[in-house]
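Crash report, auto-generated. Payload:
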Amino acid sequence: MSSVLPERRPTDWASPAMQSRIAARYRAERNFRRLGAAALVIAASFLAFLLFTIVRDGWSGFLRTEAKVEVTFTPATLGVDPAAVSGPDGKAVLARADYLALMNEAAKGLGPASGTLSDAAWLGLRDQLLADPALLGKRVTLWVPVRSTIDLLAKGKFDLAAPADSRGVSDREVAAWRWLEQQGRLRTGFNSAFLGNADSTEPELAGIGGAALGSLFTLFITIIIAFPLGVLSAVWLEEYAPKGRLADLIELSINNLAAVPSIIFGLLGLAFFLNIAGLPRSSPLVGGITLALMIMPVIVIAARVAIKAVPPSIRDAALGIGASPIQVVFQHVLPLALPGIMTGTIIGIARALGETAPLLLIGMRAFVTDVPQGLTAPATVLPMQVFLWSDDVQRGFVEKTSAAILVLLVILIAMNSLAIHLRNRFERRW
Amino acid sequence: MRLVIAFALVLALAGLAYLAGRARAQRLTLAAGGRIGAVHSRPVYHGAYVAVLALAPALLLLAGWGVMGEGVIEGRVLATVAAASQPAPGPDRDALMNEVRGLVAGDLPQAFNPLAPVLAPRYAATKANLDLLAGALAVALLCLGGLWGYSRIRPDFRARNRVEAQVRVLLLVASVVAILTTFGIVLSLIFESIRFFRLVSPVEFLTGLAWSPQTALRADQVGSTGAFGAVPLFWGTIFIGAIIAMAVAIPLGLMSAIYLTQYAQPRLRRWLKPVLELLAGVPTVVYGFFAALTVAPVVRSIAVALGMSDASSDSALAAGLVMGVMIIPFVSSMADDALTAVPRAMRDGSLAMGATMSETVKKVMVPAALPGIIGGVLLAVSRAIGETMIVVMAAGLAANLTANPFSSVTTVTTQIVALLTGDQEFDSAKTLSAFALGLVLFAMTLVLNIYALAVVKRYREAYE
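Recovered output after restart:
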């Protein structure tokens, strides 16, 4: 425009052309700003949606449906001799009794719903009788867990309006459930089995207790290996490492290990710890060592930053009054750097707790129906339990998977919040 | 369990050694009139010196026995039966030994393998003997080391310097673990890959277009000789991790970073940054579950609505989309760092010239921060192609060479998991191919990481 003008004149900002140009630029500015806000909103709403679907599917996993049954503790059905029960080892006799037969007997009283009780319902009978042996021969009313299908029906997880062959539940089961409802024999209670039990093929019996304990064992190994190694090597790199090839090599290794895909650590665990060292497969020991190698770089990097942030004047003062270099580090620098080190460690542990891929390769996907017995016994961990259940075709496992995710997320959020809190509260700016 | 007791015993004895050393040094100090400096080091250091000399050899021995002991015991136990009736090394042998251990511990009422009940008593006896031997050796070493250290305590003995030298060695050893891990990874991948490449030529592996790792289980089986052309896997990995995921993560992550650094009020920023960090802290198995259960059916119904009758329920799009969301916080924080590193004078200069914020961002800030942003994106790509759980749960196993996002593709990590979690002999080409895939994945991510870190570092130095 300016080239056609004969002489230089100041821009006429009031002219329609300039005004529309300014308007266009401001419009572009507004649009760009909205775009940025939209990107954030999309990212945040995705998180919200993810949490929403998991809470929606998962909260009912913490509840279970129980049915009321009337049981007569008939000694004949139980296969026990009443005289032996009142004898010296009466408890042992009662513990060995045939509660399954008693349960089957009691289930007959449910009429059309006789097949709706869980396979493990007899455990409730045993606990009841063992707690009070005087009940033998008496009639009691008991609440016992029902099968997963009935549980899901009671929770409204089936679309009953759908045609019978596509809704995933048979007419007989629906009829049994309706009968139980009409009789007022159903109630919903807290699912303590979900938090206490180990895995099971029956959704109503499966729990995360075993996996949680497995996670605890695995993390124990991870922490006792990764924390000292990480802190000590950070100290060496920051305070002692002579400039040279060795320090460069270590630094390069740590930076690369921090970015190596986690599954590669699983390959290392499989090839080295299992096949060469012959450590027990599926055990928290191997899982813990593998995860420790994986999170060690995270701890080293965080600890180095924290150590570097301690001002040199602290070191100089300590050296000045006669402390040796080791005393300077362990009595002055490390205590001051500890909040930063702890933050990095907690973040690393949270990562180890949520990790699945390397553990898949060292066999921690084993189906373990018992809580792990020790550091070398087969075990599974929480995220692995999520993975295993998400693969299961039985419908009852959908809510279990989401409920297990909820537990995992609550623990992880608590850990991360603790890390952020530590960082904000204790980190000093010098 | 015995090993734990042995460790506890050794630690307790070392504690005694510490107390003894400290007491002797204290006595020496008193004998010299309690004057500071009469004994070179403080009693604590003398005690620590004695304890270290006692502890180190014994612990090394016990640790070595803990790692190798089981193998030695198994070898001895198996050597007692005829070679012909021994199971082949690998899962069979592990299963047998597990049964033997179960019988010994009493967890297992009945063994399947007829050999197990025979071996169980021998195993128990061998284990008891050898464990006892190792424990006794450890205690003997401990006593020898402790006594030697104790005998060296003199007023002029420089215990503190010795202990500090030992601590330095400990620090160095801890640092070397990182190198050992790297070497361990490289060596184990390379050794297994070499064994694989003896069976399948590297050229076929790297350029072949057909992937079907099912090898014949019996020699006379027809039709499944196995094809190990990994190109469809590489393509699937790049398609999901570097194309679809990045198409989601780069715009969203970059725009979030721009908004957070340039527009957002400090208060909003204080709230939103932790939310993004939270998104990064969600375990990948959760994303995988979400992708498989919630996103994949939606993607499939969209494909059906678009007229694709053979729409796959494990489409590349579902896995890629969710992976992209997972990467957003990563891209965002890298871009955040890069944008904050641009000198404020450049931004202020542009604004002072009358440019709007968006013009400043587009024409000044982003070009100036570009190397840093690109470095961050490369790191994000490296993380995406190594990501496992999302693709294991949401992507398929069919090795298709297609650019249709609604069809199913498979990735390197999915195949590694699929190949190594089935029941397979460890020496077959099928199992070994997982390590060759791992090697390729390791090399790819290593190159990306080194290059990206170098780019980011050079960029930071340019503005410092």
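Post-recovery validation: The mean pLDDT of chain B is 85.
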